[in-house]
Amino acid sequence: MPKVLISDALSPRAVEIFANKGIEVEVMTGLTPEDLKKIIGKYDGLAIRSATKVTKAVIEQATNLKVVGRAGIGVDNVDIPAATARGIVVMNTPFGNSITTAEHAIAMMFALARDIPAANVSTHAGKWEKSRFMGVELFGKVLGVIGCGNIGSIVADRALGLKMKVVAADPFLSPERAVALGVEKVELDELFARADFITLHTPLTESTKGVIDAKSIAKMKKGVRIINCARGGLVNEDDLKAGLDSGQVAGAAFDVFVEEPAKSHPLFGNEKMIATPHLGASTTEAQENVALQIAEQMADFLLTGAVTNALNMPSLSAEEAVRLRPYMKLAEELGSFAGQLIEADLKAIEIEYEGHAAELNTKPLTAVALTALLAPKLDTVNMINAPLICRERDIKVSETTSSEPTNYQTLLRVTVTTSAGSRSVAGTLFGDKPRIVQVEDVPMEAELGPYVLFVRNQDKPGFIGNLGRTLGEAGINIATFHLGRVSAGQDAICLVQIDQAMSDAVLEKVRVIPNVVQAKFLKF
Fold first, then answer.
1. Cα(first)–Cα(last) distance of the chain, in Å?
2. Catalytic, out of 177, 278, 435, 456
3. What number of H helices and E strands is found in the chain?
4. What's residue 244's pLDDT?
5. What is the CATH number of domain 446-524?
6. pTM above 0.85, yes or no
7. What is the pLDDT of residue 349?
8. Where do the structural domains in the chain lie, given as residue ranges?
9. Which of 3.40.50.170, 3.40.50.2300, 3.40.50.720, 2.40.10.10 is the CATH number of 98-275?
């Protein structure tokens, strides 16, 4: 009989679900990390919320653990790479608390507009300061939504009901989807210039970290109000403090912080700042939903092997997984390659399977490719929800298969269409090792490593020497160098595998080398 530990407070009905399915379950909350390490080896499953930290040290002691289930979206408290290395599935419930989080953002916006928290404290103190708390109406104001996915679109819908004008910045939001939502899609700079209120609903990634900082605040209307119920780190907190102090920002309402729990903070006590202790998902309904969902998912996995909302494992039988593993690695590399090169609004994704690959179960391969392609922009994407995310954002996904003979026994090609045009990358297997064999119309043979410099250039004498010198002066060692071209003197592409990460400063030096058209640092 499988055995599950619930180490954070979940609905009692979650215990009932496990028990009714014949799974032994124990509830022990408030465990210290040392306590958890001592007992985790007894359990097949671990159900958590945000309090329990499933660190590498805990995972090392989890000799029988098969699944970690997070009742909620964020899995910052789980070391997913360590879990994956041990063969432990990590699941979450990405859609169970969307309405609750969206409503909290709307509540924070109301509180900001009317100074409700400060007025409450003042009135309880026996003061009657009507003139001090002069607010603003939401009616007719412009709400800027940064990230218009599942939660952001709900916020937009509620704001439209308040007769606000909604502008949204989201690279994955198609014009058609924007029209359906009733929002106006804009670039970030236009959002900053037009919005009276700004609310963030985007994951924390390298591209979104500090999306609101001193530079962006300077572009905003004087008196803007900022709400963050998404992730700490999206807003540079020091720059926000300077904006509040100067009056450029009239107020801010935060439910999330860079360091949590936030017991002290430079903005605490600032009368222009409203703060709540990460309450976005804290309603009875949301906690009930996510608790029941994670119990069902974990029970199904432990009893039948079914995988739902997994962040690190494909939905496959054991037999299929063995056969598809090298093809999945190839699909992942091609998807990640294409995703990291996207610099405009994504409209369509086409995945082609030729030769042996066309005879396989391509559904999990497509899911792997989509997940890797979207991952640079979305931290909650997985094999299960990647197709749904594409449908929600009106990104057309298509598959084509052809078992006709080609130059390769097997070939996968990923083509992305954006508002700037189409780009493709193709690969094959040498044995069970993935190889890139074409980038757009440029033939290539390259093996990808953890760090790769992608350069598009004009095929002119001196380019290779200039590139090598630039990398050498930066102390960056070249592991492999692969160059392909259409024809002499025309477009060329090189993939340079390097031994360490490349800084933005070095990348800028590469970009100004004569005849360089584009340069990007890719990680795999």
1. 39
2. 278
3. 17, 22
4. 97
5. 3.30.70.260
6. no
7. 97
8. 3-94+284-304, 98-275, 314-440, 446-524
9. 3.40.50.720
